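Cross-posted from the bioinformatics board.
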Amino acid sequence: MALFIYGTATNTGKGFFTAEDRRAFFLRGYPANVWVVGNNEKGAMWLAEKNGVEKTKSEAQALVTAEVTAAQAAWDALSDEEKAELDNMRPTDITLP
Amino acid sequence: MSTYKNIIGKDVNFLTTDPTTDAAEGQIWYNSTSSVFKDLILNSGWSSGAPLITARGFVAHTGTQTASLLCGGLSSPPASYKTATEEYNGSGWSTGGNLATAIYALASAGTQTAGLVFGGANSSDAKQSTTATYNGTAWSTTPNSMNTARDQLSGGGTQTAALAVGGRTSAAVVTNMEEWNGTSWTNLTAMTQARGYANANGPETAFFIASGATGDNSGTPYTNLTENYDGSSLSSGSNVNTARAAGGAAGDSANAIFYGGDINNSLQVKTEKYDGTSWSEVADMASSKRGSGSGAGTSNNAALSAGNYGAPSTANTEEWNVSTNVITGAAFSSGGNANTARRQLGYTGAGTQNAFMVYGGFAPGGMLNASEEYNGASWTATPNLNTARGQDAGFGTTTAAVCCGGATPTIGKYTEEYNGSSWTTVNSMSTTRYEFGGSGILTAGLALQGDQGPSTPFGVTCEEYDGTNWSSGGSANTARRANSGVGTQTATITAGGQISPGVTANVESYDGSSWSEVNNLNTARSGNAIMGGPAGATTSVITGGSPGPVAITEQWNGTNMVTGVNMANDRSVHGAGGTSISGIVGLGQTGGSPPYGDVFTEEYTGETSALNIKTITTS
């Protein structure tokens, strides 16, 4: 059985995930509203209840990569002065677990 | 019909409030306030603990649930062999001294301050016989090695009286047992069943060896046999219910528990407990684990499981408890989304989870003058700063806040006060600074180090604010910027930051006049933010930071930094407020977010412990 479920869901703020959710299953958020969810019953229920759309790992990775690439392009378009103001923290590539 | 008094020997107590100690275990009482019968129930199960600093499996793990020692191991993919040692204090992990060589599938005995490891395999899969001792700080290789080099072995006992059991040589799984007397190893009578990755633990005089793999590479067949050793001879014990290998184990031959493991490459969550007569299935772990090591726990009422070898390897920690208390682990939950995305902002570190304020910072289009306030559910825009700025710092509360320094983009000394309804420009700091930390309250605040301009990009100086004027404070030892701070003007810590070059794990403590070096972060980073409020110098949670950003947190207990639970999102150059029990983090840069950050927040609830009191009903 795979360790994780991959999906997209919009973080609506308060109540989107609870402390009980975090204790019941693995949950990590990524760019493009991608969430990596522990593959157990509660994790699957959480994604469904949040109107999430399940993705394959490669689909989820593609969404994240596209978002990071766009963020990197936005970063690269900044002036050197602006980059320095932002501590030269260029968005880094992300590999989903 | 018998009565409660006939059975127990006393009447049911009438109480106006529930008992507050576990002395009431097993008793029934009538709560006259809520008009219900109640009792205090023994509770058993696994609860989450703070993750390891380094994810891995096939580790050595020894000690107790509140003072354990874990070292070595392997993670994948790609295969990475570990020398790192970590110590658990019941709340989180901190780094210990490294092993001399990266070893996995090794065994251990002893305690956190007097540990012993032996055997295992190196990155070339060469079986080891090396033995090393740990003194609470560093490992030393002993002159004498085991008689038979092997990995996948089990161990237990103390640093001066240990057992090495079974395992795999380069040829086969073996029955070998050896005894360590603090100086050298002696061969003992062999086990009946050759096995590797057995689930085993105990002192030398009450040692159990449960299940395990009888084939190579943890493969089938698995044995369900248990053998016990009493210090002089082996005897057969009860068979386990589910034969498996590479689980964890705790306790001794009379009070044993084993958990997790592997069956044909299927990782397990099962837990079995031995009561002196037979093994029975008890509550499963939340996460399957293989190779989490045996030996962290001296009874079947308190055990610790950490790490997992899988694809990927994980850092999960779980605690097994049998107690009248219900332990609820710390966790983050989603908070309300802010109105304006921003990073490198000012915030009220002395605020609470339900009264927290952010101001200034960078957003698309440049520096912000906007401020907004969180009430525990949603964000509301509050009056603008008089001067828009980014990389500012702040301190205080939502009714008495300070915003100081920052870039407009010109680096400034600007200071403004907020009284709950408007911002007023007040006396400036003595020194220009941005990318710095703040702590304290409006009438007793601190501006901590930071970038003080081209001539001093990594500052040591600090300033104190009394509500009217700024004055010089003590100078820190490590020059830094992008650091955070928490506490009061007379009891503050600053953690991490950028140094030249790189980032630092350094933590310093301020007593109102001078700075002292204290124990470092486990992970060096800048741009972190700290939940802790006025008590932050003695109890706080350091969140996120860069390089990354990262989602990790560390708990500060006034002495040590230990790992905490992860946030859901990576986060850096963000804000944080509240306490180590009830806090909030948010905004800043999340992983891959556009350069100017996002609007997400997370609320933190610290670990709690409460008596497991149940109301008795007729249904």
